[in-house]
What we know:
By secondary structure, the chain is mainly β. Helices cover about 10% and strands about 50% of the residues. The strands form two sheets. The protein has a six-stranded antiparallel beta sheet with strand order 1-2-3-10-5-8, with no helix packed on it. A four-stranded antiparallel beta sheet has the order 4-9-6-7. It is globular, with a radius of gyration of 14 Å.
Amino acid sequence: xxxxxxRLGVSLTSLLNEAGSLPPLHKKSAQALWQDPxxxxxxxxxxxxxxxxxxxxxxxxxxxxxxxxxxxxPYRQQLWLISGEVGVTYGSENFQRDEGDCLSFAVDLxxxxxxxxAGESRYLLVITKQ
Length: 130
């Protein structure tokens, strides 16, 4: 799905969800949840406006997700690690995130997310248009 979104020049979240903003109060029970049937990672659409999206990601033990560089409609992401440990490769740079760490990066280079914790890892992605 990530490769398709990259080729279309849209975020994976926008590919998985309807267009438009969400209501001011978006109860957890109404938040769209998608789980990859092969890798088992989950994406919960927490909130979305015209300028930003909040997406909660859950990575099972040993899970790795790679995305190619986006060629159209660039955006920035901030990854705030809620629990676990996540390794992020952004282009040729490698980052190891521990609980509470925040990493800011764009989608102009290939990116890979790896759960390097003994258990599940959870993080919040804040996606903003450039």
